[in-house]
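Good morning C.,

I know you're traveling, so I'll keep this short. The sequence:
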Amino acid sequence: MKSKIGIFFVCVLLIVCIIPVSGLTNDIKITYQDPNQDYRSKVKHLDDGRLPPNPGDIQPGFVFETNEITQIISVPPVKTLDANEETIIEILENIDEDLILGYLEDLVAFGPRVTGTTPCHEAGDYIYDEFVSYGLEARYDDWSYGGYSGNNIEGTLPGVDPSNDEIYIICAHYDSVPGSPGADDDGSGTAAVLAAAKVMSQFEFNHTIKFVGFDGEEQGLLGSHEYAEEAYGNGDNIVGVLNGDMIGYATNPTEASMIKIYENSASSWITDFTEDVSQNYEEYFELTVIPSGSSYGSDHASFWSFNYHAIFYHEYKFNDYYHSPQDIIENMDLDYDTRCSRLMIATLGELAEAQIMSEPPETPAKPSGPDEWAQFGEATFTSSTTDPEGDQIYYWFDWGDGTNSGWLGPRPSGETIEASHIWYEIGEYKVKVMAQDTFESQSDWSEPHTITIVENQPPVAPTITGPKTGAPKRLMTFTVSAEDPEGNDVSYMVNWGDGGWIPYTDLMPSGTEVTFSHSWSTPGDYTIIAKAKDQYGAKGPQAHLNLKITKNRAVTNPIIYQLLEKLIAQFPLLDQLLNRIY
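The tokens, ready to paste straight into the viewer:
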């Protein structure tokens, strides 16, 4: 009995200890080993305790429409720093204060970007045009909710791994509150998204990246909520969302050396991953990452509502000019803003797995081939180029008639490629060629080669003359000739019907008779086929001659056999007569 009472008190003690801890958050937690737990303990005292911003124009009693989706917490995906470091570093080195400042100045110039107003629409158009200029798949994502309407702006950089549908998002809201230029809130985050789009569009990543500017954040995360709901309905496999909101304010070096990240328990793996990135590329950030618990004060929270993992990057020192006319560029720390932007972008590049960018092959040489050719004839062209890294090369010929060769190759760098084509219509055509290496990095088009296609008819069916019967292993002679309607030179091909054949001969004048000889090893019925083609490669119909090879009659007397051989040598007609007999 005492042992049972002891066990009961142990169970009660465990419950008492566990319930308060699990009640500290609304998230459902599971137990797994947190590799960054020691780090979290070390930086916990650095949190200044201030909460992140709240959207500034939420109407009293505002709530989203209810849905039945509940947060599902699972073991975090296993992500390591697998991207090419050289590529990540090149990306980071292209993100500087001048780039960030340029975007901030453009955004602030629109004035307060209040949802539904002309300045906000113009800012959205500006972001859209920037995405288009970077070669991204850009779109307006229109939304309306609770009497508000606006546009989310999305630019997509497709991943190069066709077997994977993972999506990673970097986002910020471009709207602001009335009366505020919104330089830090949230021009700073929007500038990071634009900088990411500009630089990363020049590189390749295994996974798809979406660059998104949200509208309606200040009215209660309206734009991002509609976006996340649409993505959820589409079944989009969004693995991680990086939201930047107010990342450009610091008043001293200490504040400028830290950045807060807000997370829920499901998304903490992204915070841990960011910390790994910050240490791996430390010289480009010089930032201490501070995991700061949950917050529903920005667009990342919309993704939490639909089971997606998302985190919120936020400056360590809360902006003293938040939601005021003094939220201007002059009150920001551009160096800090740039370093925070780099951290977000490097994390994105690692998550999406940046690939090595290959230098494209040099522009191929102008195709070499005939200036004039006949219709129905097969014309051959050659070209070549080199690859800066010595990669193997594929070639694509455009024949100028709406058709192409498709990718041919690969060929070693510097080796000549050969391709042929038939034109069926008379006219003038421009032949050009481009090249790509094994990493699909493409060259420019070559200078075109102009070819004129003239009218042409193929040769007629050849005439085959010769014996129609014969004996095994006896050499037999045949004559082939064909006329060409335009008098073009012709060549001949003969198939003996027993697996032996003669490829097309050299060209010779139309109508020339050509003699061929062949012997058959076994008795049987055979069909000799002959074809002719003209100097332009136009092939005429084939001709046939049926041949019967019969068994030899035995000649047992050697004296008679020798005499017969001599007679055949002196009188060739005798050979033909014997062939007919036997």
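Safe travels,
E.
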